[in-house]
Amino acid sequence: MKNLRLPSYLVLLALGLAPMSFVACQKAKSTTAAQKDDTSVAIQTAPVKEETRTESVFTSGLISSDIEARLSFKTGGIIDKIYVKEGQKVNQGQLLATLNLTEINAQVLQARQSYEKAERDLQRVKGLYADTAATLEQLQNVTTAQEVARQNLTIAQFNQNYSQLRATTSGTVLKKLMNEGELASPGAQVLYVAATGQQNWVVRVGVSDKDWAKLSIGDKAKVTLDAYPNDAFEGTVTELAQAADPQNKLYEIEVQVKPGNKRFAPGLFARAEIIPNESHTYSIIPIEALVEGNGQQAFVYVVSADKHTVKKLPVRVAFFDNQRAMIASGLEGIKEVVTAGASFLTEGADVAVMNDSDTSK
């Protein structure tokens, strides 16, 4: 068997081409890496911080009294006398107004006379029945008539008593709606009286179901009034509605306000910041880290473990504080989120982290 020997010029040609092939391979790899760097999105990240705080509820309403009475006569008639004026202080039980009692007194007298006659008839028939001169049916009839007459007298006396208005609480006459000599129909409002002591001022406001769930009786509040723009008043939640208003779907709450040395009046506009007793721990990130927000739902991007790609995570936003987003859930165990460049990213995108600390090196 013959040994095959390559011509010397072919060996030299092969040796000359080997370095050139190695250089070409290296250039191809460099070109691929450069192309990859060109497609990477430059981003910046920010640390995720944690903070324990309460989420205040902000609302507004009108100052009013916690005890209000819109006084009216039970029966109709001519107003004979009104003894008070608007703004006047009154005491509980004080006589405020009366109707002309001419007609009402006549009705009481008529009812009393009818009752007295029915009583006499009853006694007479009882005697006759004892002597067997009257039947049982006759006795039953006059007994019924006497009872009806007695009830009519009670009604007339009741109407007579409620032909005058007395203060149901100590406070102030806020409004006089009718004057002397006017005809007041039954139930028509004549006087509006409200308690105006230090402990009687409240703000009644409506809140959403989400805010209602955060609150409880005894929560503290800070109340400000347009009438006193430089003052803040202490408040406490005293009532929480257990059903929503069917018209506006809001839950009414009552905040008791301490006026201090200031003068309050019903109808003053008030703003309230209610601080729930319950606190929560939130993850805090810059607002620009959020993408694709919809209500309380949003997404953020975080750098993957390989340091070159990103992952898209859903988060739930509790509320915003200036330029910070308070995240209720979704960032557990996450140390950093993408801020600058987040709006240009997609799931798994190649990135190049360009934080200030990195670029300064």
UniProtKB/TrEMBL annotation:
InterPro entries: Beta-barrel_RND_2, BSH_CzcB-like, MdtA-like_C, RND_pump_MFP
Coiled coil region boundaries: 101-128
Signal peptide as annotated in the record: 1-24
GO molecular function: efflux transmembrane transporter activity
Boundaries of every CusB-like beta-barrel domain copy: 204-274
Pfam families associated with the record: Beta-barrel_RND_2, BSH_CzcB, RND-MFP_C
Keyword set, alphabetical order: Coiled coil, Signal
GO cellular component, one term: efflux pump complex
Domain Multidrug resistance protein MdtA-like C-terminal permuted SH3 residues, every copy: 284-342
Boundaries of every CzcB-like barrel-sandwich hybrid domain copy: 73-194
Family: Belongs to the membrane fusion protein (MFP) (TC 8.A.1) family.
PANTHER family noted in UniProt: HLYD FAMILY OF SECRETION PROTEINS, MULTIDRUG RESISTANCE PROTEIN MDTA
Name by which UniProt lists this protein: Efflux RND transporter periplasmic adaptor subunit
Protein species of origin: Xanthocytophaga flava
